[in-house]
Amino acid sequence: MFVMELTYTAPIEAVEEELDAHIAWLDRYYASGVFLASGRKVPRDGGIILAAGVSRGEVERIAEEDPFTVAGVCEYRITEFIATKTSSDLAPVREHLAT
């Protein structure tokens, strides 16, 4: 599983100009089952996306496609972790440690 943390690198007005395209991009990856949750950070200096079911290379490619990235208004920090404990709703993406 991945935590995709984005941080705005441009004024919020520039971010807002790309928001509709960013939401369409989010919707595409929710529909494919890759994105599990997302939202704005508080204070509003970026956002967080939880993603699963893809490789690190794939999640990096997905981040590069984000209209925010293409427009140069954000940077991503991607952290991979092994989700060994989850709520029952997230049981399908629960992972197991290699033994």
Please give a structural write-up.
The protein has 99 residues and is of the alpha+beta class. Helix content is 33%, strand content 26%. It is built from four helices and four strands, in the order βααββααβ. A four-stranded antiparallel beta sheet has the order 2-3-1-4, with helices on one face. It is elongated and about 45 Å long. The protein starts with a strand and ends in a 19-residue tail after the last strand. The mean pLDDT is 95.
List the secondary-structure elements in sequence, H or E: EHHEEHHE
Describe the main β-sheet briefly.
4 strands, antiparallel
Helical/strand content category: alpha+beta
Average the pLDDT over all residues and give the rounded result.
95
The percent of residues in helical segments reads 25-40%
- The geometry reads as elongated
Instruction: Work out the radius of gyration.
Output: 14 Å
Number of strands: 4
